[in-house]
Amino acid sequence: MTTFAGLHRVGDPLVLPNAWDVASARCLAEAGFPAVGTTSLGVAAAAGLPDGVGAAEAATLELVRNLAGLPAYVTADIEGGSVAAAVAVADAGAVGVNVEDAFGPADAHADLIRSVKREAPGLFVNARTDTYWQRSAGLPETLRRVRLYADAGADGVFVPGLADPSDIEAVVAAVDLPVNILFLPGRMTVASLADLGVRRISTGSLLFRAALAATLRTATAVRDGAEVDPGLPAYAEVNAWADQPGN
User: Fold this and answer.
1) Which residues contact residue 162 at a Cβ distance below 8 angstroms, ignoring those fewer than 6 apart?
2) pTM value?
3) What is the rounded distance in angstroms from the CA atom of residue 63 to the CA atom of residue 61?
4) pLDDT in tens, 152-163
5) Res 244: pLDDT
């Protein structure tokens, strides 16, 4: 069986869908995805919590525990994270974590990466920098941060919001690690990112937001007498997905 790290291949990147509950993770694993990530926005929003402030740490840990036995690798988005949070999800069965710098002090984030790798050396630490996420700090600062995080022991680097092909190529060339890009519909394809040397492509909150959109479309179709999508999964299929892996 290919290791989780081994799924990050040049020319054949890992397409990592992000789940928010057991059923979504199960259906993705059964569709053949070899690894599933959690989405911090989806997990937080489903629990009625805000994203990006560490409020969903317990919910994320509970989800990882509930995914024990999933026929796919699980990697957890622990937002800004902590050593304790990383060790907890590793003990619960996660093979990796995303830790984001929220464009805070880069040296502090590098220290966190070192500490996580010291306490959980087998955990794949995907170091996220938010230089392009809801801001634009520019390519030079991005390169400085990804190099710093690579030197601190990160196993991969993640730059959500990065979309310009020349900038992506520059990040790929800057570190000898897998580069993770957030999939942005209409702005990129898996093939184009593979050609740029990207080795991991995440969906982030895309699937959760798509599920909300489908919920609204279906509800309004029922209300307005429009056609409902005939391709919906059956009750029994969803009930099977909802059963915790390993039961």
Assistant:
1) 132, 142, 168, 171, 181, 182
2) 0.94
3) 5
4) 999 999 999 999
5) 56
